[in-house]
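Listing 4. Sequential folding, example run.
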Amino acid sequence: MIFSISWRNVWRNKVRSLVVIFAIAIGIFAGVWATAFMTGMMNQRIQKVINTELSNIQIHNPDFRKTSEISNFIPDANRYIEEIKSIPHVKGVSKRIVIQSMVASAETASGVIIMGINPSDEPSVTNIQEKIIDGAYFEGIKRNPVLIGKKLAEKLNIKVRSKIVITVQDLENNITSGAFRVAGIYSTNNNMYDENHVFVRFSDLAKLTGLPENAGHEIAISLTDNKYLAEVQDKVKSLAGNLEVLNWKELSPEMSYLTETMNMYMYVFILIILLALLFGIINTMLMVVMERTKEIGMLMAVGMYKFRIFWMIVVESVMLSLVGGVFGIILGATVSKINEKYPVDLSMWSEGYEQLGYDAYVYTTLQPTFLINVTILVIITGIIAAIYPAYKALKNDPADALRIE
C-alpha cells in the first residue's frame, strides 16, 4: 500500500515532478555518456600503446634500458624467439635493434630512435604496416629502405624516395653513417612517437653497426588477448633467465596509472552530479512535505505509525529519483551505443589531441557494471534526499497541523 500511495503522490503535482525528473535524467545522461566517452578514449590510447608502440611484453638485456648502450644486447635472441613461440596465447614474436641516433636530410637533422626490425615478423607484434599514409611498407626501394613518421618528414622536409643519412655508433664505438631512402611515411596520430621513431630493416642496421645477426636489443611479444598477460609473462620469465621481462604496464607506467585511476575519476564525476541533484530533490521533497502538512498531521492523529509516514516519504523520493535516473541511464546508454559505431568527431582539435597521443575520433565504451552501479547510487541519493524532509514532517505536532487551512 505504501508503494501505491507514494507513486500517486509523485504525480499529484505533475509539472513539478516532471521538472525534477527531467533534471535528474539530464544529469545522469551527461554522467553516463561522459564516462563512456572517457573510457573509450582511454581504451583507444591503451590499444595504441599495445598494438602500435610497445606490444604486450618486451625482453631486454638487464642493462639496456638503463644505458641504451649498443653493446647491451641479447646474444642469442633467435633461440628465445623459437621457445617463446611455443607458449600458449602468444600471437607473435619479433626481435629488434634499438639505437638512439641522428638522422639528417639535405636541409636539417634530428635526434631519433632507430628501430631495426624484420619486416616479415614485425606485423605479428605491432600494426605499424597499417599506418602507412604514403609510399609502401619496405617496398619499392631495393637498397636500405626506411620508414619515417609524418611529423619527422615535415621536420626534415622530405618525402617518399628522398635520401636521408643515418649516423650511429657501432660495436667498436666508431661513428659510422649509412645512406637510406624513404620507402614509406607512417602516421600513428601520436606526434611525439612519429617524430622520434624511424624504422629500418634489421639486416641493414646490423650490417651498419656490426651487431650479430642472431642478436637483438629487444624481443617484442604480442598476445591473442591481454587477459593472458600475467600468465604469459611468468612463462617468458622462466625461459628468459636473467633477462629483463616487462609488460606494457611496466614499460609505460603512465598508461598503467591511467587505467587504475580512470574508473575512480568517473565515479567521482557521477557523485558530483548526484550531489548537485541531491539538493534539488531535497528542495522538492521539502515543498511536498510543507504542502501536505495537514494531511500528514491527520495521518498521525488517526494513529498511523511515524515509521510508515517516514517510509512513505522515502519511497516517494526514491521513485522520483529512480524514474529520472532510469530515463537518464537509458538515454545515456543509447547515445553511447550509437557512438560505439559512429565515433565522436574531435577533428577540430586533432592537432592538440595528437600531441598527447589521443585519436581525434573517439569510439565510446560502455560497461554494464557501471550502469548497475549508477542505478544503485541513484537509489541511495533518493533515500538521502528524503531523510531531512521526512524528519521535518514527523516533527510537526498533529494538533497544530490539523489547524492549518
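-- end of first protein; second protein begins --
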Amino acid sequence: MWIGQAQRATASGERIFQVMDEPEEIADRPDAVELPNGGGHLSFEGVGFEYIEGRPCWRTSTSTSRLARGSR
C-alpha cells in the first residue's frame, strides 16, 4: 500500500514540475516600453466577471486601493 502511494506521489510531483517548466505563452513585444513607477494607487472601474455570458457573478462600479511602498 505504501509503495503505491509513493509511486502516485512521485508521478504527481513529476507532473507539477512539467507544468512549471512550460514556457510562458504571454510575452512582451520586442519593442515594449517599461512602464514608469505609478503614484501608488490601483483603480478598477466597471470591472466584472462571468463564467457564462450574460450571467455576471462579480461586478464592481469603482474600486481604488493605495499600495504600500515597494509592492508589486
